[in-house]
Specification:
By secondary structure, the protein is an alpha+beta fold. The protein folds into 2 domains: 35 residues; 125 residues. The chain is built from 5 helices and 5 strands; from the N terminus they run αααβββββαα. Strands 1, 2, 3, 4 and 5 form a 5-stranded antiparallel sheet that branches. The longest helix has 23 residues. The N and C termini lie far apart (64 Å).
């Protein structure tokens, strides 16, 4: 016969193991690595890069750091039934022009995630984060989240049109 204390400890261990499995399966790395769809990812690459190309470095222009070179490092589209997810990493980079006396370059990697409801072709839950101050400033000043959302939603609207 199992004592109440032993049963409670076993129940707690099973609960923690289940929680760990759920957390692992929902983590961005596990989700993206196992179910990334390369073809669908390519469809989203161009509109996202175009949105990045529209970003400039005018906030830093007074300091002469006004040349932008933003690039999309990685993009993963994955789907699990009706729900889809896009994870991306972007490098935002601003630097001085070639004629600058002192060369300066600022760069920041930014991570973004968006979920898509396949039933109505709508993007939601767009989250763009940056760990550095430079990235946070660019995100706020240039509405990166808004531009990325518009580009993604436009691509979804195009793909879902009758």
């Amino acid at each position: 016969m199992i004592s109440a204390k032993r049963f409670s400890e076993r129940k707690f261990e099973l609960w923690m193991a289940s929680l760990g499995i759920v957390a692992l399966s929902l983590s961005p790395c596990a989700y993206a690595q196992e179910s990334c769809d390369p073809l669908a990812s390519k469809l989203f690459r161009k509109p996202i890069q175009r949105a990045l190309d529209k970003l400039d470095c005018s906030l830093l222009g007074k300091a002469g750091i006004d040349n932008s070179s933003h690039r999309l490092n990685s993009l993963c589209y994955s789907s699990n039934g009706q729900q889809s997810k896009i994870d991306l990493d972007v490098t935002l980079s601003c630097k001085t022009g070639k004629s600058a006396l002192f060369k300066v370059s600022l760069s920041e990697t930014v991570h973004g995630t968006v979920e898509i409801d396949g039933a109505n072709c709508r993007a939601s839950g767009l989250v763009i984060t940056s760990s550095g101050e430079f990235g946070r400033t660019l995100l706020q000043q240039f509405d990166v989240q808004g531009l990325a959302f518009k580009a993604l939603q436009a691509k979804l609207d195009e793909a879902c049109a009758p």
